[in-house]
Amino acid sequence: MDAELEFAIQSTTTGKQLYDQVVKTIGLREVWYFGLLYTDSKGYPTWLKLNKKVTSQDVKKEPTLQFKFRAKFYPEDVAEEIIQEITLRLFYLQVKEAILSEEVYCPAETSVLLASYAMQSKYGDFAPDTHKAGCLASDRLLPQRVSGQYKLSTEEWEKRIMVWWADHKAMTRETAMLEYLKLAQDLEMYGVNYFDIKNKKGTELHLGVDALGLNIYEKTDKLSPKVGFPWSEIRNISFNDKKFVIKPIDKKASDFVFYAPRLRINKRILALCMGNHELYMRRRKPDTIEVQQMKQQAEEERQQKRLEQERLSKEMSAREAAEQKQKEYEERMRRMQEDMERAQQELLAAQDTIRRLEQQLADLQMAKQALESKESELLELTRQLQSEKVMSEEERERLVVAISEREQAVAEMRSQVDAKTEETYRLQQEVEMARQRQQAENHARGGVREHEGPDDLTNAHLELTVDEEVNVPQTELERVTATEKNMLTKELDMVKDQQQVTDYDVLHMENKRAGRDKYKTLRQIRGGNTKRRIDQYENMCKPAMNKLISALTTDFGVALALQQRAAIHTTAELSRARRQFFNIHKKVSDPERQDPEYFEKQAAKLALDDHYIDALQKLYTEKIGSERDLNVKADDSLVGRTGTPTSSPQDYGLPEVDLKAPRLAYANVDELTNAPESVKRIFSIDHGQRRDLTDAWKQKLIQSVNKHKYDESSLQMRIAWTTALIRHWSILVDEIAKKTPKKPTWLTHRLWLMVDYRRKLLRQLREQDSEAFAEVIKTLKIAFHVPVEQVGPKTRKAWSERQLRIRVDSEKERRLKELHEELKKDRDQKMNALDGKLKKLADEEQAIKNRLETIMELEGKATKNVVGVYQPHLIENLSETTMHATLFGHRKPTLTASHA
């Protein structure tokens, strides 16, 4: 799996010597799990025998003998039993290879999770900068079946695996391997060695040998065993040629016998059974001194590694914090550099503005000087005008024109000077603001440089490194919950290629739909006593053989009766049921709380504030403390009836039987048809024993619900068997009670066991076929009380969510009603206001009409058809074209209809 080792051996070297040399080389001390596997001369995998010479065994005679160091036995719980790290690694490599090579079936969602743990074990923590898309292309991540079953590319699979891989941060490689094995050990085919066998009827089956016991599988289903035997129930194991015999501890049970196709397979089964049984019993005994020392040493090593891991985690966390802080400093330096460059550019722009401003100031000074010279000239001209009074008219007009031109030029120059003054003031303000902003930035840059000096950074890094109080966050190891698995399953179902679904995928989906897993199936197949399970194993036969047996039993009435009586006897020897809930009633002391909807009504009254959810959960806690559970109380009103001296079997629900009819054993004998009456009486039920009468009762009850002649194992048949037993035993209990002071407890105990068992059958029939259930109840006269359906979920979260939804709906309805009432009120108000306006408009229209009539009368014209006359018959006669032309301003058509 991981490496190759070469050893030089002698011809006298035994298997144990070679095995000891291997485990010594690799440093393995838990040697009881492993062995050396080789391929014999006929091509079958075989384990090397330790007590024999290597060369004397059936190894292929080659220059170099090839052996594989493999796990021969598996632990029940890897987290509790595996001690050494090398043992953990060897199991991890072997199990991973078995899953990837599809020797062990693994569903797609579990394969993705296992791949994430494998990547954590191989590469350590997920690093986004290093582990990019395509970096896992060289790794075997998923089984080929899973890769080809979904419409996903390699990059998409890697993306899903990396999402889970990132959740395993700070997990050590050893812990990742352990988590991988903890997930893998829940797979149905984990640690199971399968062998082809046949039972006494020749049915081809699979025998599964694992750490917990022996399981029997159907030929086409290696996931769900049908019968199971734990190692604690097995007393002796032996084989003779191809026949393998297992003797159970229960002396009442027969031997467990099967047949293997080859003798060497029986030898291998025997060796696996002996080893697994020995380890099974060793686990349930105190550890030996050697194992205790190994566990103590391993615990010390783990503690040392844990301390080193914690120290390393602290240092890594401190280093990450320092690197993060350094990145922050670098980012701040980059931002400050950008700010400095921006400020430099703004400074250059401000200097350019200052230069332009100085140039404008110089121009302003020159304009002022020019203005002053013009003003002096104007004053001079004014003085000349005033002094020269004896001046001609022409010269005076010329001077006036020159003065007005000079005044206009002065005004223009003054406006230019004012505009330049305002612009100069604005530029001065901008320069001052830029200078202040530059000073503030220079001050800020000076403070940052003082804070982020190299000495401070080194000290901070050293303090973070040596700080022992740093709380390093640890990612939870058990991150994968059932809900997340379901989410991953739903996500993968959307891209599943249904044409690539295998038989094992179908079986897995059926088990998942039925809520079955590996351990529930084991508990189910190991229920009951050993004898019943061995009988169940022996009755596992081919479908064709089932039909043949059914046909034979229908031809021979005696065989049918014996087969049915055997089934009844098997049913009667069931283990005692727990009889849960049947007569439990929790009394409620408060009369108000007897209302089934009391707590729901209280939930509807809670205030909708910040404490609503807390109050709802508190109310649920109070609810489950006072709620009563209702279930089936009694399923047969005839059970427990006290008989009277004149009681007949019909009073106990048993059918009427013709006592002159032949007994069941002779029912199909043709010679009795023409025999004399005296002979018929000898073979009649009346002349027979009590059991003949009870057999007739049972047969008649069974036939009343028999669906067809091949019906032997349906729920209706089993209910009829148990009903016949219950009612017959009720008669016996009453008869014995009349002759003895008290009832026979040995029989009443079995009677109530049958009652409990029939309740279970009735529930199953009611869930599968309600019509058949009603027919059986009516035919067999069984009083079966069906409990009221539980309204609403029972968990706290679900109940709270349901009450919240109900409250939201009620609040929504209440708010809608309020809005509806407001709408009606607003509508009434607006309608009243509209009525007032319409009335007012009508009054105004009437006043205008009256005034118009007065004017027209004064002019001598009639006003009957001018305005204000409502003519509905004209509107009804208008066509759509005419109405359209009227509305959009076309030529008004002539109305030919006359008004009333």
TrEMBL record:
One of its GO terms (biological process) is translation. This is Moesin/ezrin/radixin homolog 1. It comes from Steinernema hermaphroditum. Its main location: other. Residues 809-861 form a coiled coil. Keywords: Cell membrane, Coiled coil, Membrane, Ribonucleoprotein, Ribosomal protein. One of its GO terms (molecular function) is actin binding. Residues 1-284 form the FERM domain. It is a peripheral membrane protein. Belongs to the universal ribosomal protein uS15 family.
